[in-house]
Amino acid sequence: AQSVSQHNHHVILSEAASLELGCNYSYGGTVNLFWYVQYPGQHLQLLLKYFSGDPLVKGIKGFEAEFIKSKFSFNLRKPSVQWSDTAEYFCAVNAGYGGATNKLIFGTGTLLAVQP
Amino acid sequence: DGGITQSPKYLFRKEGQNVTLSCEQNLNHDAMYWYRQDPGQGLRLIYYSQIVNDFQKGDIAEGYSVSREKKESFPLTVTSAQKNPTAFYLCASRSGLNTEAFFGQGTRLTVV
Question: Helices marked H in chain B — which ranges?
Fold first, then answer.
């Protein structure tokens, strides 16, 4: 069965600091990976996704993530955070072909607070 | 407007009563999902449906039931067997496994 781990539960940064949020998954086959963000009082929205190809994917608002298959990781990065990045971030995975397709599993989330 | 509608936004029920949460989408998506969001636990999958008249248990299905009689609708019933039903419930849909999931605004259920 697939699962997702996010090890950073709370992160506090100052504006302009660099961000890296960890995400590890467990599943032996092909996976599709996602990062979602939930701003205070808003719906979850997609930041970026990886299905295949270039393991470094770029998303909205300057975010990027790198898929490292050997480490089962999909860490989210941003070189310089802004106060408006304060939100909760969720990593998600679903098995690709041959697995329990369409079963979309989320991690426990990381609450990011950016101080001005 | 296209999207996912969950109703109501807030719901109160007495302990021991079943309650049904509504989720409707007009995005023509095949797959629909129900999650429960609790502080510090992220989104936990309750049930999901890949197509009409089909659904699978997620990781925390006990005490919940669903139906998928129409493509647009995926109601969730929280039964009296659910030991800790007070939570924020999110519905989502997407067109396929390589696509983005879209979320509703959520229903906050309080059982007293």
Answer: none
Residues of B in contact with A96 (CB under 8 A): 97
For residue B85, is the peptide bond before it cis, meaning its omega torsion is within 30 degrees of 0? no
Rounded CA-CA distance B4/B26 in Å is 7
Placement of tokens 């949460």 in the chain: B21
Tell me how many helices (H) and strands (E) chain B has.
0, 11
Q: Which residue is associated with the tokens 């879209």?
A: B102
CA of A65 vs chain B CAs: smallest distance (Å): 16
DSSP lists the bridge partners of residue B2 as none
Closest CA of chain A from B79, distance in Å:
23
Task: Specify whether the CB–CB gap between B37 and B87 falls below 8 A.
Answer: yes
Distance CA A56, CA A50 (A): 8
Per-residue pLDDT of chain B (112 residues; tens, 9 = 90+): 569 999 999 999 999 999 999 999 999 999 999 999 998 899 999 999 999 999 999 999 999 999 999 999 999 999 998 999 999 999 999 998 778 899 999 999 999 9
